[in-house]
């Protein structure tokens, strides 16, 4: 299979590797595909992590969710602020 990335997709992969979120392009793509997989209806858990009493790392899906949360927080942290300088 040949995959052609948009420039912004390639840049995001480079940022993920440079930031340490992934060590290789393959690892970054594996993580992204895992996030898609766990969102498929047939892969969704029937109960929440808290109902299972498993904590944050009770399953691979929980780890993938945490990875997604960290990625969103990372993006927010690096988004330019509209506010002026603070003292």
The chain-level structural class is mainly alpha
Mean pLDDT: 77
Give the number of domains: 1
Let me know the largest β-sheet: none
> What sequence of helices (H) and strands (E) makes up the elements?
HHHH
SS elements, strand count: 0
Helix percentage range: 55-70%
Rg estimate, integer Å: 16 Å
Uncertain runs? none
Strand content: under 5%
Span between N and C termini? Answer: 53 Å
Number of helices: 4
Net shape:
globular
Please specify the SSE layout and strand pairing.
Blueprint: H1 7-19, H2 25-39, H3 49-52, H4 60-77
Helix pairs in contact: 2-4
Describe the structure.
This protein has 87 residues and is mostly helical. It has one domain (14-77). 57% of the residues lie in helices and 0% in strands. The chain contains four helices and no strands. The protein has helices at 7-19, 25-39, 49-52, 60-77. Helix 2 crosses helix 4 (60-77). The longest helix is centred in the C-terminal third of the chain and has 18 residues, at 60-77. It is globular, with a radius of gyration of 16 Å. The N and C termini lie far apart (53 Å). The mean pLDDT is 77.
Give structural attributes:
mainly alpha
Summary?
This protein has 87 residues and is an all-alpha fold.
């Amino acid at each position: 299979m040949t995959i052609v990335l948009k420039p912004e997709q390639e840049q995001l992969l480079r940022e993920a590797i440079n930031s340490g979120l992934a060590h290789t392009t393959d690892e970054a793509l594996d993580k992204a595909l895992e996030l898609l997989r766990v969102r498929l209806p047939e892969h969704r858990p029937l109960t929440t992590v808290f109902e299972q009493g498993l904590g944050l790392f009770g399953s691979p899906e929980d780890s993938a969710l945490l990875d997604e949360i960290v990625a969103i927080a990372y993006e927010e942290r690096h988004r330019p602020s509209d506010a002026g300088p603070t003292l």
